[in-house]
Fold:
Amino acid sequence: MAKIDARGKSCPQPVMMTKTHVDSGEKELEIYLDNAVSASNVQRFLEKNGFRVQIIDEDGTITIRGTKGDWPENAVKATEEQQKALQNTAVLIADRVIGGEDQVLGEVLMKGFLGTLSQLSNPPSVVALMNEGVKLALKNTSSCDHLSALRKKGTRILVCGTCTNHFGITADIGAGVISNMFEITEALLSAEKQLTV
Structure:
């Protein structure tokens, strides 16, 4: 079993350290972390790569044990088909508004854009929020409601953790998951189409 000490490492380092071992063919991993956001990122990465995950949180250390699963063939096929169906369009939003000069109009346009996305029968596979765009996921806002509606339709909402930390709003995020540059970049590049707002 490979043991990875990622304590004290900032995102996306814990995921990258884990990825190195996964890419080398490791089937059993034990990763030690010291914050919940990194643990969540590592957990999602492992699960996406076919690992069964167990999490133990004690004495300030979060231990993630991952074992490469022998999934039934039909379950693997269904998962692959679902992923292909969702890998169509990724949207990167890097501001709270659309446009520049008129902030009021820009805010109205952004809310209209998110509201429209949430009403689509085939919404984007990923919406990634970075820079000022992370503020769209703040609790008790109409934009957060639209993002939550998208999530319920299967859209992955990835919120840049570096950005939320910069603005001091990590605890106030109400939609999506706190993510990292590696996961966001991978999600954007794996989509067939990308749209930047």
Notes: The radius of gyration is 18 Å. The chain has seven helices and nine strands. The chain has a mean pLDDT of 89.
